[in-house]
Structure of HoxN/HupN/NixA family nickel/cobalt transporter:
Amino acid sequence: LLIGGVEIMQLLGEKWHWKTGFLGWVTQLDFGWLGYALVVVLILSWIIAMVVWKVGRFEERWG
């Protein structure tokens, strides 16, 4: 959804020649960097989930 939403906003921004504001910023986004950011977010969420699982000892409580 994030990638699709950015793509739609980029198309609209280019069609209507919006160069300033939020849509101007979105039209300048690079999908390469956006992909790296998405990977970093997924890795961080995985690490946080593992830490919460180990610290919270959910397996001992409900296992």
